[in-house]
Amino acid sequence: xxxxxxxxxxxxxxxxxxxxxxxxxxxxxxxxxxxxxxxxxxxxxxxxxxxxxxxxxxxxxxxxxxxxxxxxxxxxxxxxxxxxxxxxxxxxxxxxxxxxxxxxxxxxxxxxxxxxxxxxxxxxxxxxxxxxxxxxxxxxxxxxxxxxxxxxxxxxxxxxxxxxxxxxxxxxxxxxxxxxxxxxxxxxxxxxxxxxxxxxxxxxxxxxxxxxxxxxxxxxxxxxxxxxxxxxxxxxxxxxxxxxxxxxx
Length: 249
Known about the structure:
Blueprint: H1 2-13, H2 18-41, H3 43-46, H4 49-72, H5 78-86, H6 95-118, H7 124-130, H8 148-169, H9 179-198, H10 204-214, H11 216-244
Helix pairs in contact: 2-4, 2-6, 2-10, 4-9, 5-6, 5-8, 5-11, 6-10, 8-9, 8-11, 10-11
């Protein structure tokens, strides 16, 4: 009996396999993108508005982080993965695998939304695609008509702040158990701030997934929403240790 209990304890404590971690990232990114894009493409019909979409984003992050964050770390975003690696919290060698899993999860999510929309009311899919399928953009593709520079600054700063929150609430000195809630609420805040400017990316996997179905304009502007969040994440990742961990005595 004692031996059986010991073996069970070892099995519970064993670190998740690479396959399990990648599956968790795939699942979490699917959940996040499915929640965002389903809510965003239904805005006109449901009347939930930007506030409703922002809340949907935060809720899906909270749910995904509590569900599988203990398996993979709950990144669900290439920018988070790169930022965590820059901060020394994640191995650089694992970054490509995480990013691929996240991108594939996002693409499958938007494909499912596309299939649902294709079987929706007359004109629903056409209207969604005409509106860019909730893609990110600048200029005429920006919800508020903001230009390229404004969008780049917004995405870099918002992502850097978001990564700083993530690194702070997952610091070993932070209270345990509250990180998913804080991260979800922070992402809600940043979406409320950035949807009018860029339609809120902060996540290259989300941007890639929607641009595929959004048409030529989102695809041509996609580089911004890959580059800017990554730059913001790197700034936060490299700055966190000297700024905040350097305060220790």
